[in-house]
Amino acid sequence: MIIFNYIVVCLVFGTTFLAIKVGMDAAAPPFFSAGTRFLVAGLVLYLLMVLRKKASFTLFLRKEMLLSGIGLTFGTFACLYWGEQYISSGIAAVLSATGPLIILVLQAVLLKQKGGPLSVIGVLVGLAGVALLVLPSITVSTGKWWVIGCLVVLLGEVFYSAGALYSKWVTELLSEVSPIALNSAQMIYGGALLLLLSALTEQVEIGNMLRPAALGSLLYLIVFGSMIGHSLFYWLVAKTNPVFPSTWLYVSPLIALTIGALFYGESVNWVSVAGGVTIIVGTILTNLDNLKPLRAYPSKVTKNERNPC
């Protein structure tokens, strides 16, 4: 059951990038689409947690939920959705895999936490992967908006990395609160801010949102991308450890590149694949110390698989 759910998480998170791209190509406004997705998903999950008596509405009075929502949802997905108007879903997925590299840099710069030699090498390898992915394409008739789209997605990962570091502190501060409740609360705040940004910057055409591609994209992202995907992720954290489920970051970008090419006609060449693999290798090297707990994982899997539910 654990391995099956892990595969589902990798597939779901790997397909969300293409689902976003489908919505953007159907002329769905990026900020409105992202805001609706996270506000609806967050509200449904939070109400379920309240009904199960695992959360209370007083959680929304805490500023930590607002600040987490700004980093993890608002900044991250405003940039991702906007950027995917101009770049392929596969490229967006690979660039999003730089999050752990940026976290290490922020830890060193802001928190004065120096990484080991392998972490430094991992960052350099990851940066080389980004260069390999982006620079050759600049010379092949991509246009300035392609480059800007890539840079904006990377900016979103800066928001994500800052939010991830902050949310780690929040989960320790509010250790008695369910992680799903914390995540859904920050999604509600992030979704509301995205809708506010949409109201200030976008003109929403209801007809565009009701197009089958746009509506299907939105429903898929709400149900599978946000509700099922995140719930299974936290189920895996509870059944195994915080490290194992996070390894989806090393799998999903390649899934996104593959399905984008197979089902949406996105162009993929050997340079893109090499850049993607290099970024993932750099990410693994950067997090090698954090991956060490997986050595003890098989025995824990055996224990959990006896009573997976």
Features:
309 residues, mainly alpha, disordered C terminus
Give an account of the 3D structure.
- With 309 residues, the protein is mainly alpha-helical.
- It has helices at 2-25, 30-51, 63-83, 89-96, 99-110, 117-138, 144-173, 179-201, 206-209, 212-239, 243-246, 248-264, 270-286, 288-291, 297-306.
- The protein has one domain (2-301).
- It has 15 helices and no strands.
- Mean pLDDT is 85; it is low at 298-309.
| Count of the separate structural domains | 1
Provide the helix percentage.
over 70%
Silhouette: globular
Distance between the termini: 9 Å
Count of DSSP-assigned helices? 15
Unreliable stretches, pLDDT < 50, 5 or more residues? 298-309
- Overall strand count: 0
Averaged pLDDT: 85
- What is the ordering of alpha helices and beta strands? HHHHHHHHHHHHHHH
Question: How do the strands and helices of this protein lay out in sequence?
Answer:
Layout (H helix, E strand, L loop, with lengths): L1 H24 L4 H22 L11 H21 L5 H8 L2 H12 L6 H22 L5 H30 L5 H23 L4 H4 L2 H28 L3 H4 L1 H17 L5 H17 L1 H4 L5 H10 L3
Helix pairs in contact: 1-4, 1-10, 1-12, 2-3, 2-8, 2-10, 3-7, 3-8, 4-7, 4-12, 5-6, 5-7, 6-13, 12-13
Outline of the structure:
By secondary structure, the chain is mainly α.
